[in-house]
Amino acid sequence: MENAHEDDTWDGISDEDILAVDLEQVEEQATTSASTESTKKRYHTGSSKEDDSDLVIKMVKVDEELQDGSKPMHVPPLESLRGGYLWVSDISSQIWCEQQLEYRLSLPPDVIIPEPKAVTKGSELHLARELEVQDYVNIKVTSSEDIFAVKVLNLLIVFKSILTHSSTVHREVPIFGVVDGVFILGKIDEVRVDDETFNLDIVDLKTRRYQRPPGKAQKIAHDAQVMLYKHLFDNLVRGFIPCHSLRVALKLDLDRTLGESVTKHICSSLTTLLSKDKKEDSWNLSQLLDELRNAAESLPFINQLFIDYVWQESQQTFLMEEVKYDGVWLENQMAKYLKYWKGERECQGVDVEDAWKCHSCDFQDGCKWIAKKTREHQLARDRKNNTK
Q1: What pTM does this model have?
Q2: Based on the number of CB atoms within 10 Å of its own CB, is 154 exposed (0-12), middle (13-18) or buried (19 or more)?
């Protein structure tokens, strides 16, 4: 029998339901972070944003759907919306609401949705913590290969500094890898090193408007995010450098000589850390990735995962929560969500019990998922009435 509460959910949440919603649950959290502390600087390409939602390489939308007036070809969202690869934040946003994410990624370039104040404050806190341990150094880039090389350079500096025990805290650590055939990029808020045990821990920073733990819906997204960071990091330690995916997904030429500015900073940063003296040589991504592999294979796996919940008003931690890594759970979650990106299933919105999220969504009006569920519940109600 249909539950009356569920019926009301899609036709318009009642006042009682609205009052019962934890208002903090409707805030999406900023997920950015900091740096490579060993050199007290971080190389970047001069872009205006450095958060996990920025693309290091321009997306190329697939425009070849129509050929000679023929029927449109099926292009999976991975290609049509994301240009062949994903960010870790795509997965956490997808867990929150897949339909909302699809609408956001489908917006025309000239349509901008204002960033919520809570997200802006969270971004500011991340930046402040980042600048405590590093400065930014601009690098002139002339190609997509240069852009990705800067990410590899920053990650390599972190790995080398861990191995040389030159610092115990590393922020805004670039990470990348392949999950179920899909190339994924991300930034880890913080990697901490225990000087005595050499254990490595990941800490993900989340800002909160109120001193309350996150709701169940947010907790699932947070846990999946930090587990995915560990999965990607540990795979690099295993020596899994996805060169093929870099060529196919990001369309990079690994043998292309890197630009003069990038090469200069590679040599100046890694002169004492490289496995061989390459100060006078030219560099390409293939060589840089070899250095990354050599360093990564000497590292331990990530030991523990934590989420640091910070109250925005005081900018102080009010809850540090450990997340137990569950590889089977993560694998099942990733299989479920990657099916959408591969075009193996249609886009889905939230379940009935999470319909409260819709009231904070910019796409509530005209949402096809809400319309679909409303029709389904109306049909169920009609069938129920006809049987009386």
Answers
A1: 0.81
A2: buried
